[in-house]
């Protein structure tokens, strides 16, 4: 402990203040400059405050050349050179020699990056989300007591159990429909808002969810990995292959609970159910008209815009709908619609539909005048009604 009294110390500093030599003033200015340059850094704590008049010795660091006022301060400062600091990126585990280099590197991760799952190809923009997803390919320890199915996360198990309980807690604010999963509701709401945030970079077509976009993008690829077990036909998507195979097997697993009609294709089944429910989720933003199919809405919008994107290669005539263009192919005599049963071809899709009833025996048009009489085509029913009215008039 210093034996000099505080009062004597102050008097000494004041008396020597005016007698300070030019050399001492220069030394003091250098130390002040050192302090200014290092203000805010960790080295500020290395030096203790010593009145200017009492500083007699300086100690230099052999590593960086910095001058300190005491041997103790120098020893503390040199320890910092010996300590190994860990400047490792927490995202990619890359190590850097300085904190500044690590900080500059971290900016690379702030840009939007894609993280791909090597197992299934799914894309994530947050690395932690990819890690959670990878667990779905690993051990599945969450067990459903109802059906013996296993899941990799508790959240997936909880969502799955709603299939058994029938619980549908996610309700659409625009209609009465409800869902057992939040992501399903989010996709459904886009039908009401006409929001289609996922766009194909090849053709510009837009979609309500990323899975539909990924499925669509395979159209632009020539690769067809899925082959039919019964013929040589190949498909880009497994679901399309499965639907095609049902033509060979005659399987129609999708049964309508309203009328008992069954379908081989789930998409056709969904459209059919809307006939019974009257659901028309696609709304025209210009006139407010609603439609059960998105494609029908797109065709309708061209009435307002006057757009006719389908052009005949033979006569340059344009059409608002692709099916009308196909019907127009009078130049080539093309018949693009083929019967899967007998192979007969037709130029119009509705003519093909009428023809198919010969094979199925379907007679959807019921006469209101003659009970129990049904017809394959509407014109047959109209003829029957007119004949019935004519007979009643004659009598």
From TrEMBL:
One of its GO terms (biological process) is regulation of transcription by RNA polymerase II. It holds the Pfam family zf-C2H2. Residues 26-49 have a biased composition (Acidic residues). Its main location: nucleus. Pathway: Protein modification; protein ubiquitination. GO terms for cellular component: nucleus. GO terms for molecular function: DNA-binding transcription factor activity; RNA polymerase II cis-regulatory region sequence-specific DNA binding; zinc ion binding. Residues 13-25 have a biased composition (Basic and acidic residues). Residues 59-86, 87-114, 115-142, 142-169, 170-197, 198-225, 226-253, 254-281, 282-309, 310-336, 337-364 form the C2H2-type domain. Keywords: DNA-binding, Metal-binding, Nucleus, Repeat, Transcription, Transcription regulation, Ubl conjugation pathway, Zinc, Zinc-finger. It comes from the Eukaryota. It is found in: Nucleus. SMART domains: ZnF_C2H2 (SM00355). InterPro entries: Znf_C2H2_sf, Znf_C2H2_type. Residues 13-49 are annotated as: Disordered. Belongs to the krueppel C2H2-type zinc-finger protein family. This is C2H2-type domain-containing protein.
């Amino acid at each position: 402990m210093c034996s000099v009294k505080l009062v004597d110390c102050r008097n000494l500093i004041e008396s020597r203040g005016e007698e300070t030599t030019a050399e001492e003033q220069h030394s003091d200015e250098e130390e002040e400059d050192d302090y200014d340059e290092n203000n805010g850094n960790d080295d500020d704590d290395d030096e203790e405050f010593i009145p200017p008049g009492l500083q007699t010795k300086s100690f230099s660091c052999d590593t960086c050349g910095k001058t300190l006022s005491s041997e103790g301060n120098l020893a503390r400062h040199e320890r910092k050179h010996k300590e190994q600091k860990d400047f490792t990126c927490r995202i990619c585990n890359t190590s850097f020699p300085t904190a500044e280099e690590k900080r500059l590197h971290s900016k690379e991760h702030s840009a939007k990056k894609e993280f791909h799952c090597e197992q299934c190809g799914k894309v994530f923009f947050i690395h932690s989300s990819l890690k959670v997803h990878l667990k779905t390919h690993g051990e599945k320890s969450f067990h459903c007591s109802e059906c013996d199915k296993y899941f990799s996360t508790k959240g997936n198990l909880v969502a799955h159990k709603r299939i058994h309980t029938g619980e549908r807690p996610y309700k659409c604010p625009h209609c009465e429909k409800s869902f057992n999963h939040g992501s399903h509701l989010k996709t459904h709401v886009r039908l009401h808002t006409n929001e289609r945030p996922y766009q194909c970079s090849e053709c510009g077509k837009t979609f309500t969810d990323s899975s539909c976009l990924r499925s669509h993008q395979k159209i632009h690829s020539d690769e067809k990995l899925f082959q039919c077990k019964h013929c040589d036909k190949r498909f880009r998507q497994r679901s399309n292959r499965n639907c095609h195979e049902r033509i060979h097997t005659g399987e129609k697993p999708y049964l309508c609970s309203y009328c008992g009609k069954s379908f081989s294709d789930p998409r056709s089944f969904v459209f059919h159910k809307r006939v019974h429910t009257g659901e028309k989720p696609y709304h025209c933003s210009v006139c407010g008209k609603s439609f059960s199919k998105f494609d029908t809405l797109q065709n309708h919008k061209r009435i307002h815009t006057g757009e006719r994107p389908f052009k005949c290669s033979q006569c340059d005539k344009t059409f608002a709908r692709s099916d009308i263009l196909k019907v127009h192919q009078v130049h080539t005599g093309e018949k693009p619609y083929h019967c899967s049963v007998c192979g007969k071809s037709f130029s119009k899709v509705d003519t093909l539909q009428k023809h198919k009833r010969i094979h199925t025996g379907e007679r959807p048009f019921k006469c209101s005048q003659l009970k129990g009489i049904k017809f394959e085509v509407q014109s047959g029913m109209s003829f029957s009604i007119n004949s019935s009215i004519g007979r009643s008039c004659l009598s």
